[in-house]
Fold:
Amino acid sequence: MAADRRPLTAGLSVVPPGADPDAVRSFVTQERRPAPEPPMKEAPAPTNYAAPTRELSVGAEMELRPERKPRRTRKGPLPVGLIPVTVRLRPEIAAALKRASLERQLSGEDVFTQQDLVEMTLEPWLRANGFLA
Structure:
């Protein structure tokens, strides 16, 4: 029927071949061994500092500043995909949007998601007011 039950510590007496007995014991008893400390590495000397731009007078401290990278300006195509935008709507507008979405889905219309409905109605307004080319 049921196998003979043994206490957990009895597992320590049988160590699998090739296993470290101390590791097995610490695993069974859940003792934590201190992790070996990694060897200390020396920090590399900074290499991307700009040369001083002014001469230093006697007693003045030399100021080292990292080189500034030129700012990137976005040129080219806009990112592909959808960008999440969160808006807060009055409860009656949110309920009407949800109802329109569900009714359009039940009637089998192609445009039925709330996102599609908002895009479909917002895009003409943005175009008419010059916000969208």
Notes: DSSP finds three helices and no strands in the chain. The CA atoms of residues 49 and 66 lie 5 Å apart.
